[in-house]
Amino acid sequence: MNYFKKILRFAGPYRKYGYLNIFFNILYALFSALSYAALIPMLNVLFDKTKRVTTPPTYQGIGKLKDFFTDYMSYKITGFSGDDPMKGLMLAIGLVLALFFFKNVFNYIAMYYITFLRNGVLKDIRNKMYEKIVDLPISYFSEKRKGDVIARITSDVLEIQHSFLSILELIVREPLTILFTIIAMFLISVKLTIFVFIFIPIAGMLISRIGKSLKRKSDKVQKEQGEFLSIVEETLGGLRVIKAFNAESKFYSTFKNSTNRFYRFSNSLLNRQNLSSPISEFLGIVVFGVLLWYGGQLVLIENDLDPASFITYMGLAFNILTPAKAISKASYGVKKGNSAAERVLEVLESENPIKDKEGAEEKIDFNTGIELNNVGFKYEEDYVLKDFNLKVEKGKTVALVGQSGSGKSTVANLVTRFYDVNKGEILIDGTNIKDLTKKSLRGLMGLVTQDSILFNDSVKNNIALGKENATMEEIVAAAKVANAHDFIMDLPHGYDTNIGDGGGKLSGGQKQRLSIARAVLKNPPIMILDEATSALDTESERLVQDALEKMMQNRTSIVIAHRLSTIQNADTIVVMSKGKIVEQGTHDELMKAQNSYKKLVEMQSFSI
């Protein structure tokens, strides 16, 4: 129930719809009971049991309410029909029809208003989840499968709507329907109603026993759904490799195993859930049968109840079955929805360790340089950087080189604050980056990575990603600096051409030049290039390298290098090994020293 309360907090902005729903549900429940109670005068006319009452009856208290209602209806029927019983029947039928009509009108209006609340909560949960997903650090998603995250924001949120939020329709309507119906039943026959209540707790106990394992089974279903969504996501992302290595059957087998488990878990869950309806209906019919037996005694033997009242009573008893079944189904929904809500709330309540401290400074300029002082960092147990010290002066280009795993990309991740240092500090213009807002810190930086991350949108919108309200002239100018303008103009629709998922319609060099154009348009004072040319052919590398050199002019740059051609002109080359700096200097100085750098140059194995 705690999960339900947490989800219900999202209903705050839509509370007016909730109040309107409650109001019309009260009217629905009241008219639901009255519509069945109105059957008594109609049946009395049919059975010729209507007394001729010529004077208005007097109300004598709640205990005599049934007699007052019967006498009042007899008085109205007598006055309306005179000597023609069909007129009285038409009046009684008209009353029943009117009450049933208003009952259904109020039911529709109540459902109309709750729809806005349900869908509003659904929308806000999804928005909040997406906001949280974007806000959480990169480290969070290195531990989670993407498919599982997708499952949480899609199917789990939908499950919350089907289970938790559907209860909102029942939470007032069904209990009130039962309450008003029971009041009417008591007014007709106290003995019969008390007799009925003996069996209700027995039925409730049997139904509740069935639902105890639903949450556990539901949790398995949702986790398995996240599993096969992850397989689909990985398959789509690596389709070329899968086909190249003839691994289709392996991935199909993995996917099939997952869907088979999902099939078994779903069958088990749904069969258990489906058991609730027939059991509750059968138990209801058992109560109904016992009711007919005992009520028949009251009518036929003890003469405590007239036939019209008994038939109406049976209708009221039947009127309880539908809301009672709905409530029993809702209890299953809560158990099933608990698992989905738990998974959704796990994301929403995840703490972001990389957040702005209170009173963080907004930094809009860059004046002196970047310093890493005694930095230590580890992703898991072992330190990737140890007592790392580096100074990057404004306007200078510093290149980081070294073998794979030496910690080069980690430096870029720490400077952009994708991760926080475990030891030491990183300063910009003498200010610890933890004292700056993340937005202003990253606003000072442009990033070009080895993998050109582009989006399924137009060329224009991909370039303009880093600058809101960029003009077309600015976009074209950035593309020219990145040597991208010519190939863009050769595309079918120029800058309005859609480049496909991940830029799949472009070559590697074209994608990288768009990434550079995006960074150029942002025009940041600090540029970080992470293996920007390592995946390119010689022709593309020449064009990209030319674009990079134009972009780095008058900027502070940190270049993580793979190929020698990208770093020969750097002001400082830093050679790293196992998280430490082993030597640094210009290209010529390091070549003369004939140490680690020269070996790397000779091996031509600059890698990430």
UniProtKB/TrEMBL annotation:
<dbReference type="GO" id="GO:0016887">
    <property type="term" value="F:ATP hydrolysis activity"/>
</dbReference>
<dbReference type="InterPro" id="IPR017871">
    <property type="entry name" value="ABC_transporter-like_CS"/>
</dbReference>
<keyword id="KW-1133">Transmembrane helix</keyword>
<feature type="transmembrane region" description="Helical">
    <location>
        <begin position="178"/>
        <end position="207"/>
    </location>
</feature>
<dbReference type="InterPro" id="IPR011527">
    <property type="entry name" value="ABC1_TM_dom"/>
</dbReference>
<dbReference type="GO" id="GO:0005524">
    <property type="term" value="F:ATP binding"/>
</dbReference>
<dbReference type="InterPro" id="IPR036640">
    <property type="entry name" value="ABC1_TM_sf"/>
</dbReference>
<protein>
    <submittedName>
        <fullName>ABC transporter ATP-binding protein</fullName>
    </submittedName>
</protein>
<feature type="transmembrane region" description="Helical">
    <location>
        <begin position="89"/>
        <end position="114"/>
    </location>
</feature>
<dbReference type="InterPro" id="IPR003593">
    <property type="entry name" value="AAA+_ATPase"/>
</dbReference>
<feature type="transmembrane region" description="Helical">
    <location>
        <begin position="22"/>
        <end position="47"/>
    </location>
</feature>
<dbReference type="GO" id="GO:0005886">
    <property type="term" value="C:plasma membrane"/>
</dbReference>
<keyword id="KW-0472">Membrane</keyword>
<dbReference type="Pfam" id="PF00664">
    <property type="entry name" value="ABC_membrane"/>
</dbReference>
<keyword id="KW-0067">ATP-binding</keyword>
<dbReference type="GO" id="GO:0015421">
    <property type="term" value="F:ABC-type oligopeptide transporter activity"/>
</dbReference>
<dbReference type="Pfam" id="PF00005">
    <property type="entry name" value="ABC_tran"/>
</dbReference>
<feature type="domain" description="ABC transmembrane type-1">
    <location>
        <begin position="22"/>
        <end position="336"/>
    </location>
</feature>
<dbReference type="InterPro" id="IPR027417">
    <property type="entry name" value="P-loop_NTPase"/>
</dbReference>
<keyword id="KW-0812">Transmembrane</keyword>
<dbReference type="InterPro" id="IPR039421">
    <property type="entry name" value="Type_1_exporter"/>
</dbReference>
<dbReference type="InterPro" id="IPR003439">
    <property type="entry name" value="ABC_transporter-like_ATP-bd"/>
</dbReference>
<keyword id="KW-0547">Nucleotide-binding</keyword>
<feature type="domain" description="ABC transporter">
    <location>
        <begin position="370"/>
        <end position="603"/>
    </location>
</feature>
